[in-house]
Amino acid sequence: MIRHFWNRYKVVIIFPALAFGSIAADYNYTRQWKKARQQLQHTLSYLWSVVPLFGFGVGWFLDRKETERMTMFRDKSALYGRTLKEGEKPSWP
After folding, report:
1. What is annotated about its quaternary structure and interactions (predicted)?
2. I want to staple 88 with a disulfide (CB 3.0 to 4.6 A). Which of 48, 71, 78, 84 is the partner?
3. How many whole angstroms separate alpha carbon 6 and alpha carbon 74?
């Protein structure tokens, strides 16, 4: 009796089981992928929050280095140069 039932209805039993199983597997995979993508988006949004601060820090550092390099030329121009008095500060840092 079970063999007769199986031979008669195996397509009706197997097809929905395979269809439901593949749909459930795909749904589960999609949920996991979306969760991982959302975590990545949060990480990227934090990264884009840090990039301007990093750029500001690099710019500040380079500006300080350029100021240090230019100190060898201060108060030596032909138009504005002069001899500094004892204890007098330079015209710019």
Report:
1. Complex I is composed of 45 different subunits.
2. 84
3. 98
